[in-house]
Amino acid sequence: MPTIRSASPQDADAIAAIYNQGIEDRIATFETECRSADDIHAWFEADRPCVAVEDDGMVLAFASLSPYRQRDCYSGIGEFSVYVERSARGKGLGRLAMEGLIEEARKRGYWKLLSRIFPENTASLSLCWALGFRNVGTYRMHGKLDGIWRDTVIVELLLSNDFD
Ligand SMILES: CC(C)(COP(=O)(O)OP(=O)(O)OC[C@H]1O[C@@H](n2cnc3c(N)ncnc32)[C@H](O)[C@@H]1OP(=O)(O)O)[C@@H](O)C(=O)NCCC(=O)NCCS
């Protein structure tokens, strides 16, 4: 039975391996350089929210937040990443990871999560819509991946009902 928990520095190797599968698949991110465990350790040193989904003692998915912008006025906006181990995709683990991340973000006082997603990434878009994210719009020609211009769909989820 998969369980959600806060990720810790001990998970850095597993998280880097799962992240690198997503980078290699070329559907999730403009990033092309693989991540090392040291890169993931930096997330924990910066106290970035990060949750792991574990099954049978193995980390199979994670979701994490990075700051949207450095300006104070945007301090409650987190840009999320969610990655599931290749062979474990489509079994509800991405959803579990995001539910855990959303709970953690609420506890920490974030008011919005967002991301930019390739339009072709139907799994990621479907996951977001299932969680209540809305499409904000599409950035055209937002960057090149392997020499090809790619669009990205911006999605957002408000975490608060109280904007008074
Ligand atoms: C995108 C990703 C995180 C989704 O996680 P997952 O565990 O595969 O998805 P889940 O099984 O939790 O499914 C979540 C929802 O998305 C839908 N979904 C999942 N895969 C889908 C697919 N390939 N096509 C259409 N819908 C899909 C499910 O039906 C489900 O909706 P529901 O809850 O209403 O039934 C995962 O596929 C992944 O790691 N992909 C590679 C990395 C990536 O693209 N990360 C996102 C970067 S923004």
Q: Which structural class fits the helix and strand makeup? A: alpha+beta
Question: How far apart lie the N and C ends?
Answer: 40 Å
As for the CATH topology of the domain at 3-114, it is Aminopeptidase
- Write out the CATH superfamily name of the domain at 3-114: Gcn5-related N-acetyltransferase (GNAT)
CATH A-level architecture of the domain at 3-114: 3-Layer(aba) Sandwich
**What is the 3D shape?**
globular
For the biggest sheet, the summary is:
7 strands, mixed
User: What fraction, in percent, of the residue positions are helical?
Assistant: 25-40%
**What is bound: which ligands?**
coenzyme A
- Number of H/I helices: 4
> How many strands appear in the DSSP assignment?
7
Q: C-alpha Rg, in Å?
A: 15 Å
Biggest sheet, spatial arrangement of strands: 1-2-3-4-5-7-6
Q: What portion of the residues fall into strands of 2 or more residues?
A: 25-35%
- State the CATH class of the domain at 3-114: Alpha Beta
In sequence order, what are the helices and strands, one letter per element? Answer: EHHEEEHEHEE
If you average the pLDDT, what whole number results? Answer: 97
Low-confidence stretches: none
